[in-house]
Amino acid sequence: MGNEKHGDDPAKPIDLASSDPEYNGYPISKHRSCWVHVIGSLKARKKKISKQEAQKLRDFRLTAPCFLGNIPCRQRSKRRVKSKNSISKQTNRLDSGAFECYMEKLWSSFPEEKRTSFAYFDCQWFAWYRKASFREKVLSWIKREQIFSKKYVLVPVVCWSHWSLLIFCHFGESLQSETKTPCMLLLDSLEIANPRRLEPDIRKFVLDIYRAEGRPEKKEMIYRIPLLVPKVPQQRDGEECGKFVLYFINLFVEGAPENFSIEGYPYFMRKDWFDAEGVECFCEKLDSFGK
Predict the structure, then answer these.
(1) 218 vs 180: CA distance, rounded Å
(2) CA pair distance 35, 26, nearest whole angstrom
(3) Under the GO molecular function aspect, what terms does this record hold (predicted)?
(4) How far apart are CA 176 and CA 282, in angstroms?
(5) In this structure, are residues 43 and 13 in contact, taking their beta carbons and an 8 Å threshold?
(6) Cα R_g (the chain), whole angstroms
(7) What is the DSSP-derived secondary structure letter of residue 109?
(8) CA separation for the pair 245, 264 (Å, rounded)
(9) Could you tell me which of 283, 285, 197 has the C-alpha nearest to residue 241?
(10) Tens-digit pLDDT profile for residues 175-233
(11) Could you tell me which of 59, 76, 72, 77 has the C-alpha nearest to residue 33?
Protein backbone atom coordinates (compact mmCIF):
# COMPACT_ATOMS: atom_id res chain seq x y z
CA MET A 1 0.00 0.00 0.00
CA GLY A 2 2.62 2.45 1.02
CA ASN A 3 5.38 1.03 -1.15
CA GLU A 4 4.48 2.88 -4.29
CA LYS A 5 4.48 6.15 -2.41
CA HIS A 6 8.03 6.11 -1.27
CA GLY A 7 9.70 3.12 -2.84
CA ASP A 8 11.77 5.34 -5.14
CA ASP A 9 12.92 7.69 -2.43
CA PRO A 10 16.72 7.27 -2.38
CA ALA A 11 17.01 8.96 0.99
CA LYS A 12 14.73 6.62 2.92
CA PRO A 13 16.19 4.37 5.66
CA ILE A 14 16.83 0.76 4.67
CA ASP A 15 15.21 -0.76 7.73
CA LEU A 16 14.06 0.05 11.21
CA ALA A 17 16.77 -1.83 13.04
CA SER A 18 18.89 1.31 12.82
CA SER A 19 16.13 3.89 13.24
CA ASP A 20 16.35 4.12 17.03
CA PRO A 21 19.95 4.99 17.92
CA GLU A 22 19.63 4.53 21.66
CA TYR A 23 17.41 3.28 24.42
CA ASN A 24 17.70 4.71 27.93
CA GLY A 25 21.05 6.14 26.97
CA TYR A 26 22.55 2.92 25.62
CA PRO A 27 23.64 2.95 21.95
CA ILE A 28 21.80 -0.10 20.69
CA SER A 29 21.66 0.34 16.92
CA LYS A 30 25.43 0.14 16.55
CA HIS A 31 25.66 -3.14 18.46
CA ARG A 32 24.08 -6.29 17.09
CA SER A 33 24.52 -7.98 20.46
CA CYS A 34 23.51 -4.94 22.46
CA TRP A 35 22.66 -6.80 25.65
CA VAL A 36 26.07 -8.48 25.68
CA HIS A 37 27.65 -5.10 24.97
CA VAL A 38 25.93 -3.40 27.89
CA ILE A 39 26.76 -6.16 30.37
CA GLY A 40 30.34 -6.31 29.12
CA SER A 41 30.86 -2.59 29.47
CA LEU A 42 29.60 -2.65 33.05
CA LYS A 43 31.86 -5.54 33.97
CA ALA A 44 34.80 -3.73 32.44
CA ARG A 45 34.37 -0.90 34.94
CA LYS A 46 35.03 -3.36 37.80
CA LYS A 47 32.69 -1.50 40.12
CA LYS A 48 29.12 -1.79 41.36
CA ILE A 49 26.49 -0.22 39.19
CA SER A 50 24.33 2.59 40.53
CA LYS A 51 20.61 2.27 41.21
CA GLN A 52 19.95 4.36 38.13
CA GLU A 53 22.04 2.04 35.95
CA ALA A 54 20.34 -0.99 37.47
CA GLN A 55 16.93 0.46 36.60
CA LYS A 56 18.10 1.15 33.05
CA LEU A 57 19.14 -2.47 32.73
CA ARG A 58 15.80 -3.69 34.05
CA ASP A 59 13.97 -1.42 31.63
CA PHE A 60 16.17 -2.49 28.75
CA ARG A 61 15.54 -6.16 29.38
CA LEU A 62 11.82 -5.60 28.89
CA THR A 63 12.29 -4.91 25.20
CA ALA A 64 15.68 -6.47 24.57
CA PRO A 65 14.27 -9.86 23.46
CA CYS A 66 12.13 -8.18 20.82
CA PHE A 67 14.96 -5.96 19.71
CA LEU A 68 17.42 -8.81 19.41
CA GLY A 69 14.75 -10.84 17.64
CA ASN A 70 14.56 -8.29 14.82
CA ILE A 71 18.26 -7.73 14.17
CA PRO A 72 19.82 -9.55 11.22
CA CYS A 73 22.84 -11.72 11.77
CA ARG A 74 26.28 -10.22 11.34
CA GLN A 75 27.23 -12.69 8.61
CA ARG A 76 25.48 -12.26 5.30
CA SER A 77 23.85 -15.23 3.72
CA LYS A 78 25.54 -16.52 0.57
CA ARG A 79 22.13 -17.39 -0.85
CA ARG A 80 20.47 -14.58 -2.77
CA VAL A 81 16.88 -13.70 -2.09
CA LYS A 82 14.75 -14.48 -5.12
CA SER A 83 12.15 -11.81 -4.47
CA LYS A 84 11.84 -8.73 -2.32
CA ASN A 85 8.47 -10.09 -1.21
CA SER A 86 9.78 -13.49 -0.15
CA ILE A 87 9.14 -14.45 3.48
CA SER A 88 11.39 -16.60 5.59
CA LYS A 89 9.55 -19.39 7.39
CA GLN A 90 12.61 -20.35 9.44
CA THR A 91 11.97 -17.87 12.26
CA ASN A 92 9.23 -16.04 14.12
CA ARG A 93 11.14 -12.79 13.78
CA LEU A 94 9.65 -10.16 11.50
CA ASP A 95 11.58 -7.29 9.98
CA SER A 96 9.73 -4.44 8.29
CA GLY A 97 9.92 -6.03 4.82
CA ALA A 98 8.41 -9.33 5.94
CA PHE A 99 5.76 -7.51 7.96
CA GLU A 100 4.65 -5.47 4.95
CA CYS A 101 4.49 -8.57 2.77
CA TYR A 102 2.31 -10.37 5.32
CA MET A 103 0.17 -7.27 5.79
CA GLU A 104 -0.53 -6.83 2.08
CA LYS A 105 -1.62 -10.44 1.75
CA LEU A 106 -3.68 -10.32 4.94
CA TRP A 107 -5.36 -7.12 3.74
CA SER A 108 -6.29 -8.67 0.41
CA SER A 109 -7.93 -11.57 2.25
CA PHE A 110 -10.49 -9.26 3.91
CA PRO A 111 -13.91 -8.79 2.25
CA GLU A 112 -14.31 -5.59 0.26
CA GLU A 113 -17.02 -4.27 2.58
CA LYS A 114 -14.56 -4.48 5.47
CA ARG A 115 -11.74 -2.76 3.63
CA THR A 116 -13.90 0.25 2.73
CA SER A 117 -14.19 1.16 6.43
CA PHE A 118 -10.48 0.77 7.14
CA ALA A 119 -7.16 2.23 6.10
CA TYR A 120 -3.69 1.15 7.19
CA PHE A 121 -0.30 2.82 7.30
CA ASP A 122 2.99 1.46 6.09
CA CYS A 123 4.70 -0.12 9.10
CA GLN A 124 7.63 2.30 8.91
CA TRP A 125 5.75 5.59 8.83
CA PHE A 126 5.49 6.10 12.57
CA ALA A 127 9.21 5.45 13.09
CA TRP A 128 10.12 7.74 10.19
CA TYR A 129 7.84 10.44 11.56
CA ARG A 130 9.91 10.45 14.74
CA LYS A 131 12.88 11.52 12.62
CA ALA A 132 12.59 15.26 11.96
CA SER A 133 14.09 14.97 8.49
CA PHE A 134 11.30 12.60 7.35
CA ARG A 135 8.38 14.11 9.26
CA GLU A 136 7.00 16.36 6.53
CA LYS A 137 7.24 13.61 3.92
CA VAL A 138 5.43 11.10 6.13
CA LEU A 139 2.62 13.57 6.81
CA SER A 140 2.21 14.11 3.08
CA TRP A 141 1.88 10.34 2.54
CA ILE A 142 -0.71 10.12 5.32
CA LYS A 143 -2.70 12.97 3.79
CA ARG A 144 -3.14 10.92 0.60
CA GLU A 145 -4.84 8.16 2.60
CA GLN A 146 -7.83 10.39 3.45
CA ILE A 147 -8.06 8.83 6.90
CA PHE A 148 -10.77 11.23 8.08
CA SER A 149 -13.17 9.47 5.71
CA LYS A 150 -12.50 6.07 7.33
CA LYS A 151 -13.97 4.57 10.47
CA TYR A 152 -10.74 2.94 11.51
CA VAL A 153 -7.08 3.42 10.68
CA LEU A 154 -4.53 0.71 11.53
CA VAL A 155 -1.11 2.05 12.46
CA PRO A 156 1.61 -0.58 13.04
CA VAL A 157 4.20 0.87 15.42
CA VAL A 158 7.75 -0.29 15.95
CA CYS A 159 9.92 1.45 18.53
CA TRP A 160 13.10 -0.06 19.93
CA SER A 161 12.19 -2.76 17.39
CA HIS A 162 9.21 -3.92 19.45
CA TRP A 163 5.96 -4.08 17.50
CA SER A 164 2.61 -2.80 18.76
CA LEU A 165 -0.60 -1.65 17.08
CA LEU A 166 -2.19 1.80 17.22
CA ILE A 167 -5.77 2.20 15.93
CA PHE A 168 -7.47 5.51 15.17
CA CYS A 169 -11.25 5.31 15.60
CA HIS A 170 -13.71 7.77 14.00
CA PHE A 171 -11.21 10.57 13.46
CA GLY A 172 -13.57 12.14 10.94
CA GLU A 173 -16.31 12.62 13.55
CA SER A 174 -16.82 15.51 15.96
CA LEU A 175 -14.61 15.26 19.01
CA GLN A 176 -17.76 15.74 21.10
CA SER A 177 -19.58 12.79 19.52
CA GLU A 178 -20.87 10.16 21.95
CA THR A 179 -22.12 7.56 19.46
CA LYS A 180 -19.04 7.60 17.21
CA THR A 181 -16.34 8.46 19.69
CA PRO A 182 -13.01 9.62 18.24
CA CYS A 183 -10.43 7.69 20.24
CA MET A 184 -7.26 5.68 19.94
CA LEU A 185 -6.50 2.09 20.88
CA LEU A 186 -3.00 0.85 21.65
CA LEU A 187 -2.61 -2.92 21.51
CA ASP A 188 0.64 -4.31 22.88
CA SER A 189 1.53 -7.97 23.36
CA LEU A 190 4.25 -7.00 25.87
CA GLU A 191 2.26 -5.11 28.48
CA ILE A 192 5.08 -5.38 31.00
CA ALA A 193 7.09 -2.98 28.80
CA ASN A 194 4.55 -0.20 29.56
CA PRO A 195 2.76 0.65 26.28
CA ARG A 196 1.97 4.18 27.50
CA ARG A 197 5.61 5.14 27.18
CA LEU A 198 4.68 5.86 23.55
CA GLU A 199 1.90 8.30 24.42
CA PRO A 200 3.89 11.57 24.04
CA ASP A 201 5.05 10.58 20.54
CA ILE A 202 1.57 9.34 19.60
CA ARG A 203 -0.13 12.56 20.67
CA LYS A 204 2.34 14.73 18.76
CA PHE A 205 1.88 12.47 15.74
CA VAL A 206 -1.90 12.84 15.87
CA LEU A 207 -1.72 16.61 16.34
CA ASP A 208 0.51 16.96 13.28
CA ILE A 209 -1.86 14.78 11.23
CA TYR A 210 -4.78 17.05 12.14
CA ARG A 211 -2.73 20.14 11.31
CA ALA A 212 -1.50 18.72 7.99
CA GLU A 213 -5.13 18.11 7.02
CA GLY A 214 -6.06 21.69 7.92
CA ARG A 215 -8.65 20.46 10.41
CA PRO A 216 -10.41 23.08 12.58
CA GLU A 217 -10.04 21.22 15.90
CA LYS A 218 -7.96 23.03 18.50
CA LYS A 219 -4.83 21.54 20.02
CA GLU A 220 -6.42 21.21 23.47
CA MET A 221 -9.26 19.12 22.06
CA ILE A 222 -6.96 16.92 19.99
CA TYR A 223 -4.80 16.19 23.02
CA ARG A 224 -7.91 15.07 24.91
CA ILE A 225 -8.72 12.30 22.42
CA PRO A 226 -8.84 9.19 24.64
CA LEU A 227 -5.94 6.75 24.32
CA LEU A 228 -7.20 3.35 25.47
CA VAL A 229 -5.00 0.34 26.20
CA PRO A 230 -7.19 -2.79 26.21
CA LYS A 231 -6.07 -6.13 27.58
CA VAL A 232 -4.80 -8.21 24.68
CA PRO A 233 -3.12 -11.59 24.14
CA GLN A 234 0.46 -11.60 25.39
CA GLN A 235 3.33 -13.03 23.39
CA ARG A 236 4.90 -16.25 24.54
CA ASP A 237 8.50 -15.43 23.74
CA GLY A 238 10.69 -12.52 22.65
CA GLU A 239 10.22 -12.93 18.91
CA GLU A 240 6.46 -12.96 18.35
CA CYS A 241 5.46 -9.30 18.68
CA GLY A 242 5.29 -8.70 14.91
CA LYS A 243 3.00 -11.65 14.30
CA PHE A 244 0.85 -10.68 17.26
CA VAL A 245 0.30 -7.24 15.71
CA LEU A 246 -0.91 -8.96 12.54
CA TYR A 247 -3.11 -11.19 14.70
CA PHE A 248 -4.61 -8.11 16.39
CA ILE A 249 -5.28 -6.54 12.99
CA ASN A 250 -7.05 -9.67 11.81
CA LEU A 251 -9.22 -9.88 14.93
CA PHE A 252 -10.07 -6.19 14.95
CA VAL A 253 -11.07 -6.05 11.30
CA GLU A 254 -13.29 -9.08 11.84
CA GLY A 255 -14.91 -7.85 15.06
CA ALA A 256 -14.88 -4.04 15.00
CA PRO A 257 -18.31 -2.53 15.79
CA GLU A 258 -20.16 -0.43 13.24
CA ASN A 259 -19.76 2.59 15.50
CA PHE A 260 -17.09 2.69 18.19
CA SER A 261 -18.29 4.34 21.39
CA ILE A 262 -16.52 4.67 24.72
CA GLU A 263 -19.68 3.38 26.40
CA GLY A 264 -19.36 -0.01 24.71
CA TYR A 265 -15.59 -0.33 25.25
CA PRO A 266 -13.85 -2.77 25.20
CA TYR A 267 -16.48 -4.54 23.04
CA PHE A 268 -15.02 -7.86 21.88
CA MET A 269 -11.54 -7.00 23.19
CA ARG A 270 -11.85 -8.96 26.41
CA LYS A 271 -9.61 -11.56 27.99
CA ASP A 272 -11.50 -14.32 26.21
CA TRP A 273 -11.39 -12.70 22.73
CA PHE A 274 -8.71 -15.19 21.72
CA ASP A 275 -7.42 -18.63 22.56
CA ALA A 276 -4.16 -20.49 22.04
CA GLU A 277 -5.67 -22.50 19.20
CA GLY A 278 -6.71 -19.29 17.45
CA VAL A 279 -3.20 -17.90 17.66
CA GLU A 280 -1.74 -21.12 16.25
CA CYS A 281 -4.23 -21.24 13.39
CA PHE A 282 -3.50 -17.62 12.49
CA CYS A 283 0.27 -18.21 12.46
CA GLU A 284 -0.30 -21.17 10.16
CA LYS A 285 -2.32 -18.87 7.90
CA LEU A 286 0.58 -16.42 7.83
CA ASP A 287 2.99 -19.21 6.96
CA SER A 288 0.77 -20.18 4.04
CA PHE A 289 1.12 -16.63 2.70
CA GLY A 290 4.82 -17.19 2.28
CA LYS A 291 4.43 -20.25 0.07
Answers:
(1) 19
(2) 10
(3) cysteine-type peptidase activity
(4) 37
(5) no
(6) 20
(7) H
(8) 23
(9) 283
(10) 989 899 999 999 999 988 899 999 999 999 999 999 999 999 999 999 999 999 998 88
(11) 72
Answer positive or negative: Cα dihedral of 276, 155, 72, 85. Answer: positive
Tell me the one-letter amino acid at 141: W
In angstroms, how far is the first alpha carbon of the chain from the final one?
21
**Cis, peptide link before residue 230, omega less than 30° from 0:** no
Residue (of 169, 89, 122, 95) closest to 9 by Cα position: 122
Residue 144 gets the label, from left (phi > 0), alpha (psi -120 to 50) or beta, of alpha
> pLDDT > 70: what percent of the chain?
67
Task: Report the interhelical angle of 51-69 vs 34-45 (nearest 10°).
Answer: 150
Q: Which of 33-42, 104-113, 267-276 has the lowest mean pLDDT?
A: 33-42
In whole angstroms, give the CA distance from residue 198 to residue 37: 25
Q: How far apart are CA 248 and CA 134, in angstroms?
A: 28
Please give the pLDDT value at position 26: 31
162-169 vs 183-187, strand pairing mode = antiparallel
What are the φ/ψ torsions at residue 130 (nearest 5 degrees)? -70, -15
Helix (H) / strand (E) element for 165: namely strand 162-169
Which residue, 261, 73, 127, 112, is CA-closest to 185?
A: 261
DSSP 189: S
Average the pLDDT over 127-151 and give the result: 96
Give me the pLDDT at residue 84, please.
Answer: 37
More confident residue, 266 or 290: 266
- Higher per-residue pLDDT: 61 or 243: 243
| CA gap 254, 111 in Å, rounded | 10
For residues 203 and 198, give the distance between their C-alpha atoms in angstroms, rounded to a whole number: 9
Cα 18 to Cα 30, 36, 239, distances in angstroms: 8, 18, 18
